[in-house]
Amino acid sequence: MPDARIAVHPEARIDRIEPELHGHFSEHLGRCVYDGIWHDETVDGEGFREDVVGLLEDLDLPVLRWPGGCFADDYHWEDGVGEDRPRRRNLFWAQGREEVPEEPNSFGTHEFLELCERIDTEPYLALNVGSGDPQEAADWVEYCTYGGDTALADRRRENGREDPFDVPYWGIGNENWGCGGQMSPEQYAREYRRFATYVGTMDHLMADQEFDLIACGFEDHEWNRRFMEEVSESAWGAEFPLDHLTLHHYYGRTMSVVETEDDETFDRFLVEALEMDEHIERIAAAINASATTRDIGVIIDEWGAWHTESVAETGLEQPGTVVDALSAAAVLDIFNHHADVMTMGNIAQTVNVLQCLVETEGDDAWARPTYHVFDLYSPHQGNDAVRTSVDAPTREVENKDDDLPLVGASASLSDDGTYVTLTNLDLRGEHSVEIDVENADPDAVDAQILFGDQEHDAVVDADNAASFEPESFDVGVENDGTLTADLPPSTVVGVSIR
Ligand code: AHR
């Protein structure tokens, strides 16, 4: 007997699922860039880690944000172009495994933008607001995107790049309420307007491309409301150049992935991940309170599991587990439910750091469980999200107002059919699910499962990585076209109905 029922409502379209909802974030932090993406001493002459680049190429990675993070507001882009690159401080993070807070600058603008071209992803550069100025920011935009005859465009050519780079996204700072300058919302709004004046007018006349400007918000939604109110107070009024407002949501900060044994802690962790839903609603409300004519999207610029193992001394590295991957699947379902307001989501961070997708050790590089979740969810990219209703058991969680829903789902439509993703967030039990998708044809149903043979606290490493890959999964089709599936504990399933 099914104990969970999911109905897909094709008539209740939410909006297009922007591929950028499956975006990523890489910072000059620990072993993300140096050792993760780039080797300073390399045999192939280019410096890229080909094994990592290969894994990223295989994933539909729509957008990549760089160079930070906190690092962005102390980064001066000119240090990272040309032949002679100065070694500088890294005020926030040590690089590599040595605890040296120094930045070699061997990976800079050209290297990052070439990486994006190789893996076919849109670049998103975060400008320095905290310790930089609008001149430096506008110069970076010109250097990258101008095709004409200025000293900066010529410098890019001298540095080996004739054609302008395509850079569709520019972020005005990072966490400017914190490491990006400790600003009040009003102060940041005034800085935002100042930077946007010089950066945001560039695409009209100079660059042969359009780009979006992105402001940093906060998990404190009163801060967002005050920022929006102040930023709208200008001669531009509601037409000021602001295309997206962001926030960062990390969860699991008090929980160890290695030492935690009690399932209640894992339940609480999953409830914290699901708090993403409320954050999206609240930041969208803060935008709507002030932006009347402009369509400003919500970006979750940094998100993912951040456990007690991730501290400065470990370079923010933590083991990659099934339960973390499960939380990513639940968050991607939430993004689909909010496809009408969300324009991007960037998990932190691509390689080795926090909830990375790829891990390296010496000459080995492998996909983490979260990598497979992104792969399984990629058919949603560009589809139309539609409403799903889920009637499933929930569990009370100590110290949390919200219960944990034990089964989750989202669905999308394309010309090829319907794609449904399902999560069993119950770490201790199987759930039988009935899915109403309007007369599914048994021959047109195809499903894959993740983590069917794994424990929720299983940790990936170079030797066992293949055991986290997807497997085909049996979904029953009843005479009336209803689908049935038995979801093992802590699993993720993707069902395609053509
Ligand atoms: O991702 C690690 C750090 O988390 C980033 O530098 C900062 O933006 C956030 O606080």
Walk me through this protein's architecture.
With 498 residues, this protein is α/β, with parallel strands linked by helices. Helix content is 24%, strand content 26%. It contains 11 helices and 24 strands. It has helices at residues 50-57, 109-118, 134-145, 151-158, 185-199, 202-205, 221-231, 263-274, 276-290, 322-337, 369-377, and strands spanning 4-16, 23-25, 63-66, 88-89, 102-103, 122-127, 169-172, 212-216, 244-251, 297-305, 342-348, 358-361, 364-367, 384-391, 394-395, 404-405, 407-414, 417-424, 431-436, 445-450, 471-472, 476-477, 483-487, 491-497. It is globular. The two termini are 26 Å apart. The structure holds alpha-L-arabinofuranose. Alpha-L-arabinofuranose binds next to loops.
What structural class is derived from the secondary structure elements?
alpha/beta
What is the alpha-carbon Rg in Å?
A: 23 Å
Rounded average pLDDT: 93
Distinct ligands, ions and cofactors found in the model = alpha-L-arabinofuranose
Tell me about the largest β-sheet.
10 strands, mixed
Categorize the overall geometry: globular
Measured as a percent range, the helix fraction is: 10-25%
Number of alpha- plus pi-helical segments = 11
Measured by DSSP, the beta-strand proportion falls in 25-35%
Major beta sheet, strand line-up: 21-20-24-18-17-14-1-19-23-22
How many angstroms does the end-to-end distance come to? 26 Å
